[in-house]
Amino acid sequence: MNKARTHLDSGVRPVTIIKGRGSASQIAHRFAGDDRQAFDDGWSADADAQEATALRTSVEWEQCKSALSRHGSPDLPFHLGLNPYRGCEHGCIYCYARPTHSYLGYSPGLDFETRLIAKQNLPEVLRAELSRPGHQPGVVMLGSVTDCYQPVERELGLTRRVIEVLAQAHHPFSIVTKGSGVERDLDLLAPLAQRHLVAVYVTLTTLQPELARQLEPRAAAPHRRLRMIKTLSEAGIPVGVSLAPQIPFLNDDMEQVLAAAYEAGARQAFYAVLRLPWEVAPLFEQWLQLHYPDRAKRVMERVRDLHGIAEADRAQGKAYSAQFGQRMKGTGIWAEMLAQRFALACRKLGLNRERVQLDCSQYHHSRLSAQQSLF
Q1: Nearest-CA neighbor of 237 among 280, 282, 187?
Q2: Please, which of 12, 144, 239, 350 could form a disulfide with 81 given CB 3.0 to 4.6 Å?
Q3: 84-102 pLDDT tens trace
């Protein structure tokens, strides 16, 4: 288990907070044969300069073979996902998608935030998939793994091109994002909302600016996300708020977040507890030791309570259960208390009174022929 090193007599360079980044290290991925650590040779100024250069965000192009991913998880309300990017510059330390970078041979730590993969041919591949007569429509979730409106989208525009294809096919989809870039595409989203073809969910983890800056260093600030909700709502787009993840003893302002989101125009809400699969667990523990050492142990013990981790497994450092039915909402007394708080707040505010129903009946593969207009 990797922990922040504070002693200097070992010769290992101490792990420190890196401004603008969620992770503080290049943790080895689980397929690596060895784990490398930075060594302090006394030339700290040169080492810091090299590290700063290495942390610049880079983008690699990828030619993808498929656009839509399918899953059978009973815990999720969608079965089709679409992600224009691998990795995410938002740098959320808790992101359950970090371990996916291991399959690329990259670190789920800083690499996940700085070495991004863009699926160059994604719109064309999506068009080909939706043009097949045998395609069965269902609500597609954009950003199911990494944020489709992360900063690089401003330059590359892959998400917008994907939406144009979905719009032409009259295929329903939803978006989950922390990125204010979604406002750029109101000209596409508003007409689709009138046809019951789109809904947007804005992730709002906390209203505390300092905590948000530490948890999600390059995502939009909490007040900016509230403005996103207001803008989307005023454009007639069904908008909800995601309170994910809930982290014990950190973002304990659930009721305040729900109230602020409702006032801004959100009418749907959901939450999930913190999930720490694979390399995310040591990364998050390292982050706790750097930012909140006084409560790090309490946080991790409660997270293990939420996932029902047995004492024997706790001794081995396990902090997450991937069991269907409990991985999203947790289990036990603390999970029940969290669920009760959420239900009571939603009931008082009037959230989730009506379910957003997106229309799959308008889709037809022939709409993607050259003769069809965008709408």
Answers
A1: 187
A2: 144
A3: 999 999 999 999 999 999 9
Give the pTM.
0.91
Q: Are 173 and 140 in contact (CB under 8 A)?
A: yes
Q: What is the CATH number of the domain that holds 63?
A: 3.20.20.70
Q: Quote the CA–CA distance of 352 and 347 in Å, as a whole number.
A: 8
The DSSP secondary structure of 20-86, one letter per residue, reads T-S--S-PPPTT-S-----B--S-HHHHHHHHHHHTS-EEEEE--S-S-EE---TTSS-SEEE-SEE
The answer to whether residue 9 is domain-embedded is no
User: Is there a contact between 90 and 147 (Cβ–Cβ < 8 Å)?
Assistant: yes
Sign, CA torsion 313/29/56/225:
negative
Q: Which residues touch 152 (CB under 8 Å, ≥6 apart)?
A: 57, 59, 85, 89, 116, 118
Note down the domain range covering 345.
55-352
Task: Report pLDDT digits (tens) over 50-76.
Answer: 454 458 999 999 999 999 999 877 877
Residue 160 placed within a domain = yes
Mean pLDDT of 170-182: 98
Tell me if 32 is assigned to some domain: no
In a domain, residue 364? The reply is no
Which residues share a beta bridge with 118? 61, 85
Q: Work out how many domains the chain is built from and give that number.
A: 1
Q: What token pair was written down for 66?
A: 């498929």
Which residues have C-beta within 8 Å of that of residue 37, sequence separation ≥ 6? 12, 13
